[in-house]
Amino acid sequence: MVHSKGLKFGIYEDYGNFTCAGYPGVVGHLAGDASTFASWGVDYVKLDGCYALPVDMDHGYPEFGRQLNLTGRQMVYSCSWPVYQIYAGLQPNFTSIIEHCNLWRNFDDIQDSWASVESIIDYYGNHQDVIVPNAGPGHWNDPDMLIIGNFGLSYEQSKTQFAIWAILAAPLLMSVDLRTIRPEYKAILQNRKIIEVDQDPLGIQGRRIYKHRGIEIWSRPILPIHGQYYSYAVAFVNRRTDGTPSDVAVTLRELGLSNPSGYRVEDLYEDVDYGVLSPQTKIKVKVNPSGVVILRADAQPSFAYNAIPTRTPYNEVFRLSKK
C-alpha cells in the first residue's frame, strides 16, 4: 500500500531491550527482526539506542547491519550509534560507523521549534571540523527531520531549514501531514533546485565560512568542476531578530570563488538567473530575519560574462528583495 503511493516504507527499532517508548527492542532478535523487515518490504530502518549500553554499540550496530544485508533486500540503515556514545563521553569510531551505516545522528532530536533548528545549525557549525570529513556518498551525517509545514517554524524559518539541510548534504526526511500541508510549505519541500544541491553526486558536506553579528554564510562545493574550480551553493542566513532585513555584501572571491572564467549565479528560491559573474563582482543580498538567501554558482569553462544588464555598472551588485 505504501509503495503504491510512490512512497518508501520506513520502520523504527532500537538496539536495546526496549525502544525509547517502551516497546520491544532488537536485542536477542537481530536476525529474526531483519528477516521480518525484509519480508514486509521495508526500505528504511532507523535503529535508536535507548535501553542499551553505549559501549555495546560498537558491536551491536554493525551486527544488525550485517543481518539486514543478509536478507538480500536493500534497506537504508539509519543509526543513532554516535550520539549515544558522545553523550556518554565516548569517542565514536567513525571509521566503523561509515562502513556499517548509511546515515547517523550526532546531536539532539529535533523539536518543532525554531530554537531547536538553531541549536542544530549551531552544533553542525561549531563542530564542523570533526563532522564534515565523515560525510560522503552512501554515508551521511543526519541533523534529523525536516519540520517544515508543521507548527513551529515561520515561512522564512522553513526556507532556512531546507537550505541549510541542503548545504549539509543531509538526508531530507519530511515530518508533516501530507494531507493538510499548506501550498507555500509544500513548494519549499518540492524545490527541485535545492534538492539537486542536497543530492549533488560529489557528496561533499558544506561548511559555515562566516559568522558575525547574527549573519552567517554557509558554502558547499558541488558539480560541475572545471579544472581546479568547484561550483558552489552558498547560503546567507540572518540569525537576527530585530525586525528588519539585513543587507550582506561580498565579492565572489571573498566567498572562495576564484575561477577566472566566472560563475553562473542563480537564486534558488526566487528562481532568478543573474548570468555569469566574475570573481571580482560584489553581490548584495537582502536577507529577512531568521531567513535565508541561497545561491548556486556554477563554475564556467570559458570567459563568458554576459549577465549584468548594460544599464547597471558592471561592478554593481544585484539586489535580491525577499517578499
TrEMBL record:
Family the UniProt entry places it in: Belongs to the glycosyl hydrolase 27 family.
Tagged with keyword Transmembrane: no
One Pfam match: Melibiase_2_C
Organism encoding this protein: Euphydryas editha
Ranges in coiled-coil conformation: none
Source species, domain of life: Eukaryota
Alpha galactosidase A C-terminal domain: residues covered: 203-291
BP GO annotations: glycoside catabolic process; oligosaccharide metabolic process
InterPro entries linked: Aldolase_TIM, GH, Glyco_hydro_27, Glyco_hydro_b, Melibiase/NAGA_C
SUPFAM superfamilies for this protein: (Trans)glycosidases, Glycosyl hydrolase domain
UniProt key word Oxidoreductase: no
GO molecular function: alpha-galactosidase activity
Cellular component annotations (GO), alphabetically ordered: cytoplasm
Swiss-Prot/TrEMBL keywords: Disulfide bond, Glycoprotein, Glycosidase, Hydrolase
Protein name: Alpha-galactosidase
Quaternary structure and interacting proteins, as annotated: Homodimer.
